[in-house]
Specification:
- This protein is α/β, with parallel strands linked by helices.
- The protein contains 4 helices and 3 strands, in the order H-E-H-E-H-H-E.
- The protein has a 3-stranded parallel sheet with strand order 2-1-3.
C-alpha cells in the first residue's frame, strides 16, 4: 500500500508545454477539473495550456473566452450545438446515437487536425 501511496502522489514534468482540451457545459465546473489537473498531476512550474473549450453555453457574459458563441451569439462548436443552450436545450429526440456520433466525429476530426492535444478533460 505504500507503493500505491507513492504512485498517487507522483507528479509529472514534461519537457514541453502540455496542451489540453476541456469539454463541459459549465465554466467553473470545467475550470475546476483543469485546475486540479494543473495543481496535482504536474510538477510545479509545468506549463499547461487550455487549447480549446467545447460545449459551454452557460454564463458567457462572465466567461466569454470559454464560451461556444461567436460575436453574433451563434454556437460555433459541435458539442455546444448538440447540447444546446443551458436555458433552452434541444428536444429529447435530438439525442439519438446517430446525432451524437456525428457531432463527436466532427469534434474528433477538428481536435486531431493541426497541433492536436495531449489531454482531454471532460466534465
Amino acid at each position: 500500500s505504500s507503493d500505491l501511496a507513492q504512485q498517487l502522489t507522483a507528479t509529472v514534468r514534461c519537457s514541453e508545454e502540455v496542451s489540453l482540451v476541456a469539454v463541459g457545459t459549465h465554466p467553473t465546473l470545467t475550470l475546476e477539473a483543469v485546475s486540479m489537473l494543473r495543481d496535482f498531476a504536474f510538477a510545479s512550474g509545468q506549463a499547461v495550456k487550455v487549447r480549446r473549450t467545447l460545449g459551454i453555453t452557460y454564463k458567457c457574459g462572465v466567461f466569454p473566452d470559454m464560451c461556444a458563441e461567436d460575436a453574433d451569439g451563434n454556437l460555433e462548436d459541435p458539442v455546444a450545438a448538440l447540447i444546446g443552450r443551458f436555458e433552452a436545450p434541444p428536444p429529447y429526440e435530438r439525442y439519438t446515437f446517430s446525432v451524437i456520433e456525428s457531432a463527436l466525429e466532427a469534434v474528433s476530426r477538428e481536435l486531431t487536425a493541426g497541433r492536436g492535444f495531449d489531454i482531454l478533460v471532460c466534465t
